[in-house]
Every structure is written in C-alpha cells, then in structure tokens.
Automatic annotation (TrEMBL):
Keywords: Iron, Magnesium, Metal-binding, Nickel, Oxidoreductase. PROSITE patterns: NI_HGENASE_L_2. It comes from Allochromatium vinosum (strain ATCC 17899 / DSM 180 / NBRC 103801 / NCIMB 10441 / D). Belongs to the [NiFe]/[NiFeSe] hydrogenase large subunit family. Fe cation binds at residues 65, 447. The keyword Oxidoreductase applies. Mg(2+) binds at residues 43, 62, 398, 450. It comes from the Bacteria. InterPro entries: Ni-dep_hyd_lsu (IPR001501), Ni-dep_hyd_lsu_Ni_BS (IPR018194), NiFe-Hase_large (IPR029014). This is Nickel-dependent hydrogenase large subunit. Its cofactor is Fe cation; Ni(2+). GO terms for molecular function: ferredoxin hydrogenase activity; nickel cation binding. It holds the Pfam family NiFeSe_Hases. Ni(2+) binds at residues 65, 444.
Length: 474
C-alpha cells in the first residue's frame, strides 16, 4: 500500500517547513515536496507606505538576516533618489553586510549543521544539536559562538544594535565612523580570522568522510546565479549578475541588477507559500538555478583576499573539473566566505578614507521605480519598488535568496530520498539526511514567504476537540 511520510517540523533551520515523501507500494519514493507553511504578506501591507519606511519595514521580515534586507532596501531607495552614495558610505555599508555574512554563516555551520557532521546521521535526535557539539568538541562549539559574536558586535558597533539597526539610510549611512569604533572593530578581527582558519582546516579533514553524501546531496545539474565584480571576482554588495551552467559555461554576464526581470521569472505552486523563481530563457520548471555561497564561488575566478583565494583554489579542487555541483559543499563554501568576509572587513577598515565624514547623499525621489540587489548570506536578494508622486509605495516585489533555491531544494530532497529512504524499513538516519540536505542551503523561511499572483490559501475552522468543521480554500 502506498504511504506518505511527513517530516514536520523540519528541524535546525530558520522558519517553519514540512517535507512530505510519497512512497509507492514497493516502498520506493514516488514524489517528494518541501512545503513552506507560514504566510507573511509584506508585499500587500507595505502598499501605501512612504518608500523611506521600506528599509525598516522590510527588515522585519527576518530576525536572522535583517541587515541583508536593510542593504537591499536602501539600495532600492538610492535608485529612487537617483543618487550615487559617497564612496565612504558605500564602504561602511560593505563592512556591515560582510559582518552579516560572517555571523549568519557561523550560525549555519556551527549551530545548525555541525551536529550532523560531528555526532552522526543516526545519533540521538535529543542530543543532535549545539549542546551535543559542546560535549563532543567544546573548542569547536566555543569557536562557533565566538565567531558569530564577532560578526554581531561589528554590526552593533556600526548600527547601534545587533538586530534591525537603522544606521543604513537612503543615500548612505546616518553618521560617519569614529576612530574609536574603527579600532574596536579592528581588534576583533585577528581572533575571528584565526577561528575561521582553524575551523576551515578542521573541516577539510571531515570532508573525505562524507563522500557518499556529497554524491547524493543535490548533485543534479542546475545553473548558478550571483553578483560578481565586473572583473569576475567575488562580490556581495554591488556588481553585475552572472549565470553559469553546470558545465561551467557562462550563459549571462555583465547583466545590470536592474535587468533581473529579464533573467528571472516567478511561479507558484499550491503546496507552498514560497515562490518558485526560475531562469526565464529555459522556462518553468526547467530553469532551475542555485544561489548562495556555492553559486558565488562557482561563478568567480578569485575572491580578492589572500587566505580566501587559497581556500577558493582548494574548493575548486573538490571536483575534477567544472563547477562544484554537490549541494553538500555549501558548507565548504560558507567557510571560505567567512575567511573572505573577515579579511575584507579588515581591508576596508584600514583604508584611511573609511573615516571620511561625507557618508550620505540627500535628495527627494527622482524616479518612480527603484531596484536594489545585494548578496545575502543565502544568496542574491532583490527589492523592487514602485512609488507615486507622493513617494508612497504602489507595488512591491521581493525575490528572496532562499526562494531562488526553492526548485533546487525540492529536487535535492527527491534525490536524497531516492538514495537513502526505504519505505519498508524507515530508520532515523534516512530521514535526518532528507532534512540535512535542506540545511545545506541554510534556508531562511521567514524571509522567503512572499506573495506572487494567486497564492494558495486554506482556512480551517476547528471545534474545541480539534475537529475540522469547515474549510475554505482559494
């Protein structure tokens, strides 16, 4: 008899989700789906609000990566103002964005994924968490907590608080950097870089133990999308869009972010509140692409900082040729980006111009449409606004990093379930691997729940005993 296995909630991710595995009479997989079960509606309740409120409003999408939304939203507002922000304002924004990358990647690797890598897929779920890591490898756990603290402290030093800072504003930042703050941040970086390099060296010793997972965790061919510099180097704040295929051929390059709509279409399905972006020239659902650290490193020839460039060269050696296709190696790419982030923050802070007091351009709105694109920890983040003559939002679209990966995540759980799940004898390690492939993408689901077109909606009325007495669907 056919049956459905439901994994709910999916654990050690940010947000709420469910995985369903449909098994046939022979116990083998017939279908697998990743469901985002929460709905937010930012695109609707932001309508009618002044565009200058967007950075603060849209940052509330998330408590994990609000800085990413603040950066993308303010870039969309810069576009509405039609101004170039002062160079020092841009550098300061870059520092905060990189600090966000460091702290978020640390959270993903140490807190969410390292329990699987250290304690084993079949270990007791009650101990397969950061506390289990503390018992198994106290130094690694301390390093993870400290590294995340360093990233958050830099955000707090610049913005006044770790979460939802308001220091980044349309046109730049609200106040210049003081000598004292610069020195306090610089003092953190040697320790952070030492932790990052130590963790990277440790992780390289673990990778050979997971050859089987690297073979089955999301290895189906996809495209890779990210920002790159005009020279093709790693970029998290600005730059141009690049799309590369699984064979390493560049399909799109030097695409201004404002033209993202030419590359990306968006679809919806009735089983999830997350949109399904796709690469338009290949259509839906064939146009599967990935974003985030794996895609960013696949798309570049160099990072541009010493240690990160060495690590990038080693990353490219994980495979004989071509882009690294296994989603298991998101973990590796994340560690490379932590090293890069810390090195680049140090470089930016040591630039004498970082203390320049000209940090903000002021103007009224000079366009009716603004688009802001930046790289969030999980991938390319796009904010797109339209306003009226009074500067009020008339239309809003958010294309979220996690959303870009939606097709790939669904494809990945199907691949992992086909490889490991046997419906005739379900074991803990089988289902944990299905969850673990989702953790490779480090999805931030509170960010990714957004409206487009006719979204699925179901309202259930239940009585005191929990029985459904009425149900309305759209």
């Amino acid at each position: 008899m056919s049956r459905t296995i439901t994994i709910e909630p999916v654990t050690r991710i940010e947000g709420h989700a469910r995985i369903t595995l449909q098994l046939g009479e022979d116990g083998r997989l017939e279908d697998a789906r990743f469901h985002l079960t929460q709905f937010r509606g930012f695109e609707k309740f932001c309508e009618g609000r002044p565009y200058r409120e967007m950075p603060a409003l849209t940052a509330r999408t998330c408590g994990i990566c609000p800085v990413s939304h603040i950066i993308a939203s303010n870039k969309a507002c810069d576009h509405l103002l039609a101004v170039d922000i002062p160079p020092t304002g841009e550098k300061l924004r870059r520092v905060m964005n990189l600090a966000q990358i460091v702290q978020s990647h640390a959270l993903s690797f140490f807190h969410l994924s390292s329990p699987d890598l250290l304690l084993g897929w079949d270990s007791d779920p009650a101990t397969r968490n950061i506390f289990g890591v503390m018992r198994q490898n106290p130094e690694l756990a301390r390093d993870g907590i400290r590294l995340r603290q360093i990233g958050q402290t830099i955000i707090e030093t610049l913005g006044g608080k770790k979460i939802h800072p308001t220091w980044v504003v349309p046109g730049g930042v609200s106040e210049p950097l003081s000598v004292e703050k610069r020195e306090s941040m610089l003092r953190l970086l040697p320790e952070g870089l030492e932790i990052a390099k130590r963790t990277y060296a440790f992780y390289k010793t673990l990778v050979p133990k997971f050859k089987d997972e690297a073979t089955h965790f999301g290895t189906q061919p996809t495209l890779f999308l990210s920002l790159v510099t005009p020279q093709g180097h790693l970029e998290h704040y600005d730059g141009v869009l690049r799309v590369k295929d699984a064979q390493g051929r560049i399909l799109e390059d030097q695409v201004p972010p404002e033209e993202y709509g030419r590359l990306i279409g968006e679809a919806v399905e009735d089983f999830s509140y997350m949109k399904f972006p796709y690469y338009k020239p290949q259509g839906y659902p064939q146009g599967i692409y990935r974003v985030g650290p794996l895609a960013r490193l696949n798309n570049v020839q160099a990072c541009g900082t010493p240690y990160a460039d060495v690590a990038l060269a080693e990353f490219h050696m994980l495979q004989d040729s071509g882009p690294i296709v296994s989603s298991f190696h998101y973990h590796y790419a994340r560690l490379v980006e932590i090293i890069y982030g810390l090195e680049m923050i140090e470089r930016l802070l040591k630039d004498p111009a970082i203390l320049d007091t000209r940090v903000r351009a002021r103007a009224r709105s000079n366009r009716y449409e603004g688009i802001g694109v930046a790289e969030a920890p999980r991938g390319t983040l796009m904010h797109h606004y339209r306003i009226d003559d009074d500067g009020l939002i008339t239309w809003l679209n958010l294309v979220i990093a996690t959303g870009h990966n939606n097709l790939a995540m669904n494809q990945s759980i199907r691949e992992v379930a086909e490889a490991y799940v046997d419906g005739n004898a379900i074991e803990e390690g089988m289902l944990n691997r299905v969850e673990a492939v989702i953790r490779c993408y480090d999805p931030c689901l509170s960010c990714a729940s957004h409206a487009f077109g006719q979204m699925p909606l179901a309202i259930e009325l239940r009585d005191a005993a929990g029985r459904v007495v009425d149900r309305l669907t759209r």
